[in-house]
Design brief:
Elements (H helix, E strand, L loop, with lengths): L13 H13 L2 H19 L2 H12 L4 H26 L5 E5 L3 H6 L5 E5 L6 H6 L7 E5 L5 H11 L7 E2 L6 H10 L3 E5 L9 E6 L2 E6 L1 H8 L3 E11 L2 E8 L8 H22 L13
Parallel strand pairs: 1-9, 2-5, 2-8, 3-4, 3-5
Antiparallel strand pairs: 6-7, 8-9
Helix pairs in contact: 1-4, 2-4, 3-4, 9-10
């Protein structure tokens, strides 16, 4: 496997994760938020290079003033910490209020016979969608990376057993492609992350927040190969224990050439992603030079 710019897993080891879950079973998440904001986040900002990429994001991409960028870096790290705590709180049995914004495109597409594709990114807390968007008729297949910690995968599995969700793990032998194709043939739902790619993988270069950025070609290729309806799904933290799900049906001309279909679909998705980043600038959680 080629070297990666990102680790593909959740920070920490299994012992840390298991103990965090135990603590969260008996502790209000707000106590851990406060502890993290005061002690953990300042340490990370001082000693982790993520502060540099985050600061560059606010200064170069969003063109925020110097002092405001410094504050946004701190808030960005605080919210990232809260989102991670929320994930483990779910594994510990806690619940959150999740509201659906606007039209329920998920329900409408799930009622059809054909399968469809969901696209997401590392903004907000997309994992919350897996516990909130449910279908009795279709199985949802989130694409996950094989590098994730066992404790995280076990947590997901423990929650997904109560939902119609079956994860597909990316494999080096590419056998996951057959699983994806079979899922869509059965009329199921396949959910892709669209802001992660391996070095050497095929990418599309698209304008994003004022500069060219690379997005993996795979999700758009799969969707257009089958002419599948495609949803952009973003789950944003709106309060201490509140989230809002934004669903957008991405339009593209299914009668156009394959190349043009991918161009239209990818452009529509990136436009939606940029809109969400501008709405929730402190919930962009890519802590490396995304535009490199």
């Amino acid at each position: 496997m080629a070297a990666r710019q990102w680790k593909g897993d959740t920070y920490g080891n299994g012992w840390m994760h298991r103990n965090l879950i135990r603590i969260l079973r008996y502790t209000d998440v707000r106590i851990l938020y406060l502890f993290s904001d005061i002690f953990v986040v300042p340490f990370c900002i001082l000693f982790n290079r993520s502060r540099k990429t985050a600061w560059s994001f606010y200064r170069k991409r969003l063109h925020r003033p110097f002092l405001q960028s410094c504050w946004l870096v701190y808030r960005n790290h605080c919210l990232f910490s809260q989102v991670v705590i929320d994930r483990f709180a779910m594994y510990a049995g806690k619940s959150f209020d999740v509201a659906l914004d606007s039209r329920d495109w998920f329900g409408e597409l799930a009622a059809k016979e054909e399968g469809f594709v969901q696209l997401s990114a590392h903004i907000g807390n997309y994992e919350m969608a897996g516990y909130s968007l449910k279908s009795d008729r279709k199985v949802i297949h989130p694409i996950v990376y094989s590098f994730e910690k066992e404790s995280v995968m076990n947590g997901r599995n423990s929650l997904f057993q109560f939902t119609n969700v079956q994860m597909i793990t990316l494999k080096e032998d590419m056998s996951h492609l057959f699983e994806i194709d079979e899922a869509l043939c059965r009329g199921d739902i396949v959910s892709f992350p669209t802001d992660r790619h391996m070095d050497g993988g095929r990418c599309l270069t698209l304008p994003f927040l004022g500069a060219d950025a690379k997005f993996p070609q795979g999700p758009f290729s799969v969707a257009t190969m089958r002419g599948a309806d495609t949803l952009a799904v973003n789950v944003m933290k709106t309060g201490l224990k509140q989230y809002r799900i934004y669903l957008t049906l991405l339009a593209y001309d299914k009668d156009a050439s394959r190349k043009e279909q991918m161009a239209q679909l990818s452009a529509a998705y990136v436009a939606e992603l940029e809109k969400m980043v501008r709405m929730y600038p402190t919930q962009w959680f890519n802590f490396y030079d995304f535009w490199a």
